[in-house]
Amino acid sequence: EPDRESAPGSVETHCPYCSLQCGMGLRPGGATGLEVTERPAFPVNRGALCGKGRTATELLSSGARLTEPLVRRSPGGPLEPAGWDEALERIATELTRVRAAYGPDAQGVFGGGGLTNEKAYLLGKFARLVLGTSQIDYNGRFCMSSAAAAGIRAFGLDRGLPLPMADIAGSGCVILVGGNPAETMPPALRYFTELRENGGRLIVVDPRRTRTAELADLHLAPRPGTDLALALGLLHLVVAEGRTDERYIAERTTGWAGARAAAMAHWPELVERITGVPVPQLREAVGHFCDAESAMVLTARGPEQQAKGTDTVGAWINLTLATGRAGRPRSGYGCLTGQGNGQGGREHGQKADQLPGYRLLTDPAARAHVAGVWGVDPDVLPGPGRSAYELLDALGRDVRSLLVLASNPVVSAPRAAHVEERLRALDFLAVCDVVLSETAALADVVLPVTQWAEESGTLTNLEGRVLLRRRAVDPPPGVRSDLWVLGALAARLGWEKGFPDDPEEVFEELRRASAGGPADYSGITYGRIAREDGVFWPCPASADGTGADGTGTDGTEVDGTGAGTRHPGTPRLFLDRFATPDGRARFAPVTHRPSAEEPDAEYPVLLTTGRVLAQYQSGAQTRRVAELNAAAPGPFVQLHPRLAERHGIAEGDPVAVTSRRGRAVAPARVTRDIRPDTVFMPFHWPGAGRANTLTNPALDPTSRMPEFKVSAVRVERAGAE
Ligand code: SF4
Predict the structure, then answer these.
(1) Which residues contact 386 (CB under 8 A, 6 or more apart)?
(2) Which pTM does this prediction carry?
(3) Which CATH number fits domain 70-142+341-505: 3.30.70.330, 3.40.190.10, 3.40.50.300, 3.40.50.740?
(4) ipTM value of the model?
């Protein structure tokens, strides 16, 4: 029976797409049989939804939906309908064969930042216990991993935003670096407009004049790959103009001397030469940022998706530390995460180097704790595995089989043609998905799984607020949940217990596994989330014997209100101390360096990639929604009139963009809203216009993030090459 909530006839739940996780209601009705209603009481979006959220029910009843397993019965043969027994048996047999022939690490697992916390948790457990493999990572590596690495380095803890979104509106100045919420998460835009209505300043850093940049008081448009230098130049001016917060630096930070020296080597005129941002604009930005009583820097994929992403984010964090912003009200540093469970998806064990609770796989105490919850010896747990791109690159070589959940790397991975070739080289590929994505189309077995509104589960939004998505409708016959699939496979591989398909039962185990870790969920229950409309982690269970629901261990209420002495959750982090051993934030002594690929005579233009309003990530879902597809039916190449004229390209002409990885063709969009030395392509589509055919898989040494945002390319009118 669907879990009906307070709004008459409506189940209160959350959007299936981005990290804002807008609250919405679902009730029977509309053309698709299930209609989206507003949930004005949910504080993050207060009822507002973008077109993706408004149309989210369409895919539930779409004809594109997979409703039965598919099996490729002969090499090169077609995918054919099959029963669940045949499909699961085939997977179990192939994985057993690969393991026997090549060892456990020949079995790869690739997850996704859209998986619920429960699925991410169970997938990590499945890989490490059932398969015994270290080779698990997920597409979140391509999303915010540089911000996570920089946050851990500086603050000892990574939570996308260490404060609620509402604090943005109350801040005196926000520098938004490489983010475009006007298109990626439109309901969030009101926080930025309220900021300005309240007298605060918005500074947007982006090589393109995006819809978000149009709202800014100041738009800085650096050359792609130079925002690290830009941050250093701003910090240089902060020091030169005597605007550092020396008391804060002395009391709450370490490492200032190294960071200061690095910044002082980047004087404004040098930074102008590197970035293309005029010195007066640098001075204006510093003025706004330092004049404000409260101020913050927010980053998104622009600075993060670089082979120096960790240091680039680190340079922006340094700016917040030198000016005494981090860990103060309506101030500091935060990351606008991308995927729906981009935050929770990285906390519960599907990342190559981590265990549930955001614990390090190399930490003996963490291994012992999680092994205890799982009822195994810690020595059973494998060590860290390859990062996402390195895992994909190893397919068909060291890694012979791959199980994919909630990801479509054929479209979303860098150097995508190579990744596609590696997928084809596998001994065995199994994919769980709701539609036949480009990756699923290559598989030997495809399993049709339930979608957001057909199952319950928790997600953690970009603020670290743990939310409950509720089941509102029955799935089509023939479809199973990812949790059920993992349990059924585990049973076939000899693990009868430990893999329940009930989301709340999995969450209860996740709570215990996360207890005491950096991302402590032990004080959070489904009941609390429902009553409080989300709970911010860390939220440990109370130490006085009361349970997370304010009930005693025997289930009785402690104080009659249901509140007990439970931990309230942590909306704002670092107000008293940072999560480092000494409680101080750490400056990073970062310096500018060129991108992995700089323009040259053969490839003289820079390519940067991103998203558009009506599509989401690899487009596997949104390309199948009629209204969204009509609004954004295909890729394009955005370029400046000067660049277009030089190559004889007019609006709408087919443009061939070529990099060292390959060639893509898409129609021209000629506009002054982009630097003349740069072209932009959205990455949502497969085929001839696939942007990721072109992107560079050079990796950040710390986060292992590929260089999506900076590739050297050549631009021509297609056919005139
Ligand atoms: Fe869904 Fe994100 Fe749009 Fe909100 S902003 S409706 S979460 S896609």
Answers:
(1) 135, 137, 352, 394, 399
(2) 0.95
(3) 3.40.50.740
(4) 0.99
